[in-house]
Amino acid sequence: MATPSYVDLATLAADHFTPTSYANTLVLRTNTPTDPPPLDLSTPLSRVLFDVQEIDTHIDTLTTQNALPIITATAERSDASLRVLDEVESQVNALTESYKRLEREVSERYEAAEEVRMAAERMVRTLRLGRSVQRAVQMGRQMEGQMEALQRGEHKMMVPAVYTLLGLRQLFSATGKGEEGEGLRRVNVVTTLRNEVVAPAERTLLARAQQMVREFSMSSLLASGSAGQSGQTYNQTEDTKTRTTSALQTLYLLSPTKPITAPNAFTPTLLLSSLQSYISTALTSSLASLSRALATLPQLDRTLLEISARCQNIVALETLLSSIKPPDHPLLTSPLPNPTNSESATANLLQPLLHHLDTSSLPSYFWRSMAGQLTGRVNDILARGGVSARTLRTNKERVRDMIRECVDRGSRLPGTNEEGRKVGNWEREAAVMVGSVVGPLGR
Fold this sequence. Notes:
elongated
């Protein structure tokens, strides 16, 4: 039977007991919220102290009355703890011994195996690098032989040399782990190969191709002095076509391929710039010589013959471009760009140039570009007056006929007679040219 006590043990032992609520209850028993200060806190404090002393007395009484059971229970728990500790220590010792045996049997062997694996991996990488270096050196020797053949005049070796160059470029650009060319940039012999063989060969190929395009000429008008005779043999004509074809394909393949945002976004910039430069040179020379000839009419016949020859060369170039298919580019996933989303746009090397110049025909572009600048030159001659202006006005009909004949003659393929095939709507271009010269004369 429990010893009676006035201490509220049920409240103090409750799960929801909080010291603040209990203290607040004791304070409110001796004070009211309306009492003026100071508050009476000594009485609640005395009550708490007295309760603590009473609880202490209860604890002392209980421990005294139950000393033997407490000591017995404590001893039993201590003995149980010792037995558990002994068992745990034996298990820990067994685990420790097992771990040491596992470390000897597995960890040490794994470390040895890992070392062997790393050595094997590095040997494989070294072997792969050695094969890449060997391939690069072989391709470098192949390129040297091709360039020597090119120096001897074998222009057919241009395209094979470019393919070798692109293969080396593709090999050098490999930087990813596991790729064939990984680590090549750190090999001295490869660096020497790039600087002393590949780079000079690329410059030589580019310069030779651009030179061939600049020197392209198939017209025999100036050589023969008339439109009906041929100044070139068949072999010479075919050789010119072959050399120019090699040069055009070389410029296409050497054009930069990065960055490319889409598979069909490649633009052969070197090819387009060389062809545009060729046409621009023909335009500039023709415009300058025709401006001088209009001021001195005795030179007009020879000048118009030269202009016809330049246009015939452009006609021949257009025909040649239309017959050349884009070569397979090893650095691209698709062939020539497709600006019009049609199959014909990828059929030959002419379409990219027409798209770049925004024209449907190169002769038309030649005549219309010249006519667009010629009217101003004629106005300058008329503005200066003098004998040149009077002579030009007097011979207006003769100039008209000579310009029409010039356009007619220039619109034929080189080597054809007066009945030869004309390219494009030459009458429309002749009207544009005649209007640019004769138009100001009638004002």
